[in-house]
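Hi U.,

Before I forget, here's the chain from the pilot set. I'm dumping it here mostly so it's searchable later in email.
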Amino acid sequence: MFRFSLLSVLSLFTLISCSKEPGEGGSATISGKVFGYDVNTSGVITDSAYAGDYRVYISYGDNSAADNDVRTSYSGDYTFKGLRKGKYKVYVFSQCDTCVFNQNYIVQDVEITSNKQDLTLPDFVIYD
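Structure:
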């Protein structure tokens, strides 16, 4: 009876430890670009370009807090590497004169459905 119980516990532990949650430790990637509009104090767009050195955040699963962040390259590109299957939220903050703290967030929900999947998201559009 002791052998059966120990074997059952070990089997259950193995099954539980095999379930993978969204997050780091896989081989999938999520990438995209951030495009920005420069707005003057009158609210007029004065320039636009892909935004370099801009922070992009990612949350794993149902988590609402940022689990990781990266900065865009000079050409506005960003990549989150080494992700497992699961649901993610990728988001940025943008200026908003009528919003609380003068900013709002832009979220893209995405799901990685296979190992080694490379997802490219639509551009984030921000105002600064």
